[in-house]
Amino acid sequence: MQIVTPVAAMQRLAGKWRRAGARIGLVPTMGYLHAGHLSLVQRARQAVGARGKVVVSIYVNPTQFAPTEDLARYPRDLKRDLKLCRAAGVDVVFTPGDAGMYPGRVTGGYSTYVVEEKLGRMMEGAARPAHFRGVTTVVAKLFNLVLPDVAVFGQKDFQQAAVVRRMVADLNFPVKIIVAPTLRQPDGLALSSRNKYLNPGQRGQAVILFCALQAAKKTVAKKSVSAARLKQQLQKMITAAPLARLDYLEFFDPQTLEPVSKVTPGVHMALAVYVGKTRLIDNAEL
Ligand code: AMP
């Protein structure tokens, strides 16, 4: 397994692979890897085959964090990540730094961003205004550096995957986007690097996101219901967990991400909940 930090070296290596006819699969991450990330690595390997190249990028992208968010304290453990990647059969771990990715950003020498203007407006985009601009920018840059045939994203970040898909279609990136299912703890909590922030009491109550999704599924399986009514019910359920505070909860069409007024099977639900100071997100098709 190779570890590549300079962006020019990554681009050169990817070009060499391409000319030799190897397929390239990319798994973009912010590191502090868990089994969810590793399931994306397996999916990438499956897509490119034994002779293809799987690249995991590990980069805590500053442009997708607001100044008030957890950029500085985002969990990092590169040594452990490298061990996990080696064991998972990754070919290259790409670990660019800010100087390589955004040279001169702080001093005004970097000024190009990629913005998707529709699917990224609501939910995460409303709660975190500059977030998706940072995501689309870094993903576009990673695509230009790693030259992947396929890139694998998690359904855990459903809206992110939708925004990236739209960017790929709109800007003609020759990259196939694969979205892989969410891996969960036995009690249903979605695996996330941010789960590390939770103390034992908070960890216990963090399952409320999954419980809300399950409750919604159960209700909708019996009969279609008004989104406002169901939202009220679930709000009440979440409020009953004293360490949890709802940020948003939406029912929406999985293609357009537009909110629906009637919740029927096939509608998608997403929510963001603060558990203590930690903001967790989850989603599911109902
Ligand atoms: P992150 O490191 O949090 O930016 O996530 C990197 C990729 O892993 C994204 O495409 C996420 O959607 C995906 N991911 C995060 N958590 C999970 C999970 N529990 N199961 C599957 N994929 C995940």
The span between the termini is: 40 Å
Q: How helix-rich are the residues, as a percent range?
A: 25-40%
- Any guess at the CATH architecture of the largest domain? 3-Layer(aba) Sandwich
CATH topology of the largest domain: Rossmann fold
Count of separate DSSP helical elements: 10
Shape: globular
**Strand content bin:** 15-25%
Q: What is the CATH class of the largest domain?
A: Alpha Beta
Largest sheet: 6 strands, parallel
Radius of gyration (Å)? 19 Å
User: In the CATH hierarchy, what is the superfamily of the largest domain?
Assistant: HUPs
Q: How many domains in all?
A: 2
Strand order of the largest sheet: 1-4-3-2-5-6
Regarding quaternary structure, how should these chains be classified?
single chain
How does this structure look, described?
- With 286 residues, the chain is an alpha/beta fold.
- 38% of the residues lie in helices and 20% in strands.
- The protein contains 10 helices and 11 strands.
- The mean pLDDT is 98.
- The protein binds adenosine monophosphate.
- The site of adenosine monophosphate has 17 residues, from helix 2 and strand 5.
Provide a brief overview of the structure.
The chain has ten helices and eleven strands.
Top keywords for this entry?
286 residues, alpha/beta, Pantoate--beta-alanine Ligase, Chain: A,domain 2, 2 domains, six-stranded parallel β-sheet, 10 helices, 11 strands, 20% strand, globular, binds adenosine monophosphate
